Amino acid sequence: MTIQEFNEILDFAVQREQEAVSFYRDLQNQVKFQDQIQMLKELEAMEMGHIVVIESIRKKGVVETDIRNVPNMKISEYLTVDVDTLDLSYQNVLIKAMKREEAATKLYTEMSIKFGDNELSLLFRKLASEEAQHKLHFEKIYDEWINKGN
User: Fold this and answer.
1) Is the whole model's pTM more than 0.85, yes or no?
2) Which of 62, 72, 85, 143 is deepest in the core (most CB within 10 A)?
3) In the chain, what are the domains?
């Protein structure tokens, strides 16, 4: 893998994270309650944190030990809803977030398999791991919320 290819992949990942930041920022203008706005600001900050992680990868590279094995609660996989039709209730914002992270995790996982180059595969596995961590975060929040009887 060339330096240019490495940087193009990271540029792609940063662009996807910037889209997520914009997504959560736009939702902040659509919700009605301060608690929802605060949650969306936290989600926006998490996505901005992804950008920091990606830029760190750009500077330092990635090694096998950087990739965490993240458990999968599979909550988002069991939710079969069209997220574009959901209103912006607390539950639905969590569903939208989970589905977004699920899609990113799948994308990077598939890319890690598609590209045989060990360096490329390692890079995509690291990106998938980062997305899976955020998916797990939202699934835990969702699970706790549901278990409280909501």
Assistant:
1) yes
2) 62
3) 3-147 (1.20.1260.10)
